[in-house]
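Quick illustration for those who missed Monday's session on complexes.
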Amino acid sequence: MVSEFMLQQTQVVTVLDYYRRWLERFPTVRTLADAPLEDVLRLWEGLGYYARARNLHRAAQVIRDGHGGEFPRDLAAIAALPGVGRYTAGAIYSFSYDLPAPIVDANVARVIARLIHLRIPIDTAPGQRALWAAAEEFLPPENARLYNSALMELGAIVCRVRAPQCLICPVLSYCAAAPHDPELLPIKKARKATIPLTEDCAWTVHAGRLLLQQGVGSRWKGLWKLPPLTDAAIAANSEPMMHLTYPFTHYQVTLRVYAEDPPLVPGSNQAWCPLDGLEAVAMAAPHRRAVRQLTQARF
Ligand code: SF4
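Prediction with iron/sulfur cluster bound:
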């Protein structure tokens, strides 16, 4: 479950070190369930999509409190854990217990879309329904671990996005797309254009401490970041101390940091953090980069 969560949206090579550190710090469901959320987020820092870390933490607590600390062996119970979608439930069920459950990841979706010559976009509700229905129909009653692994490998190695290797494909005789042009499948909806976005933040230092604000929205909940700039005139009349860019869904965000005077009273969810204690605080990755650049440049 840890590897499946980490690998959602993130490549294996990035995940490896995080995975090892995670299992050293949280070797059991109970150690994770009992840990403060702050520790969990700190360990996840840099992987992004922090809802995954919060859901893993909550899932461990559900298993501790609702399943006596034993990981459930029932597909419906696994699917009911926080953050577990249909793919993750099927992956845990088939890879951990070798029990039959379909999985549809990007590679499998491509193979199935080609096998059944699916002519509707796979990233729509009807497309998803068609893929999962086919995956369910193809699933053998035994050897689910081997079957699901093979299907994923088939997509990764043979039924590739470009130049699928149909002539050596073990399922060529069943494939409805092979006589046509398999490279045209799967069909996807047109991509949204990237939208530029600016995020202006304040660099407020007082008595050796930096003002930070804890996120409350779903994006960075529980993570600390630089507070938003309160005086828009500063951004209008001065150069930022630094700026950096980062992608977020279909946005390209420019984070600009400006020096601002300390407020009389910190706002809600704001706190002063000693400059020499910043590394111990769980921080949103772009803000961590900004804070590191500015602390290294100035102190
Ligand atoms: S025959 Fe070609 S298109 Fe069909 S599943 Fe195999 S590699 Fe993919």
